[in-house]
Design goal:
Largest sheet: none
Number of strands: 0
Structural class: mainly alpha
Helix content: over 70%
């Protein structure tokens, strides 16, 4: 009821301008939510030191096959303190995966090994051995 009274007193052109402004704002922000890459890029614009946003953007790049940008974002995060060993392990795995796809096998082995040291898994150990064998044939 109070809102209706307030709206009656506001000039119609002002209401229209407000609505147009809100629509334009929504259109511009819609791109932010369109996919993970845009979402995490926007989060980093707003908070450049946000590790979660950096990690999310690095993962989004890796998922999309953009391995070089993934490595560029994730490598510094590994050097910084992570909020948990599990998050560090996940970051190391994504970094290793990206380096492997870039052909940087030694870097991939190093990151996979660091991830395996945090939470040992037979699959990681086997994959490291496969990569080492692959490197031996070069």
């Amino acid at each position: 009821m109070l809102a209706a009274l307030l709206i009656e007193r506001i000039p119609k052109p002002a209401i229209a301008l407000l609505l147009v402004t809100m629509i334009i704002g929504c259109v511009f922000e819609d791109n932010t939510w369109s996919d993970s890459e845009h979402f995490y890029s926007r989060a980093l614009e707003l908070s450049p030191i946000n590790q979660m946003a950096g990690d999310g953007l690095g993962r989004a790049y890796a998922r999309d096959g953009k391995y070089q940008p993934s490595v560029e974002i994730l490598a510094p995060l590994v050097a910084e303190s992570q909020p948990s060993a599990r998050r560090l392990q996940q970051t190391l795995m994504t970094l290793a995966y990206s380096d492997e796809h870039l052909g940087n096998l030694q870097a991939a082995i190093n990151y996979y090994s660091q991830a395996d040291n945090l939470y040992p898994r037979a699959e990681i150990e086997k994959h490291v051995i496969d990569l080492e064998n692959q490197m031996a044939h070069y």
